[in-house]
Amino acid sequence: MRHLVIGVFFRKRDSWWLGAPTTTPWLAASVATLRNSMFYGVIGPVEGKANALAGNMKDHLGESTLSDVQVSETEFRFTKRYAHHQDTIRYVFRKQKDGTWAGEFSGSNSGCGKVKCVLLAVPDEFFSSKHHSQTVRKLESRPRLQGDGRAAPSG
Q: How many separate domains does the chain show?
């Protein structure tokens, strides 16, 4: 069994605001903002290692690998490392009453922030090309529809 991971991480950022009010000269101020970014990935068993999990993930910063993955009834945690640098980022989630996961991340270069996600269990066959080929064949065997909902002429 594998899991799809879909979520959002939140990070506090300082931004500069420039303004030119009509009664005073130009002003500049530092404003703290909360920015969010989506991520998605897959975790699953490591071949040849009993009970070991690993995975991969992608977000606006690039692709990453997940190691030290642990999933229990109440906690989900992993270490993330981007392909383009060696900094590791530690994620720790706790299961919420609504079934989602919420927690925090931290890394020496990335800083820290809040994170939320959902885990969706999917069978290994979901990733099988045989499974996808069968689905495509089933879709291709169905009559095609025209824009008005009627079956398109065959041939």
A: 1
In a domain, residue 137? The reply is yes
The answer to the question of residue 150 being in a domain is no
Residue 40 in domain:
yes
Tens-place pLDDT, residues 25-79: 555 554 455 578 899 999 999 999 988 999 999 998 899 999 999 999 999 999 9
pTM value is: 0.70
Q: Is pLDDT of 84 > 60? A: yes
117 is a domain residue: yes
CATH number at residue 66: 2.40.128.120
The dihedral formed by the CA atoms of 77, 83, 85 and 90, expressed in degrees to the nearest 10: 0
Q: How many C-beta atoms lie closer than 10 Å to residue 130's C-beta?
A: 8
Asked if 85 contacts 107 with a C-beta cutoff of 8 angstroms, the reply is no
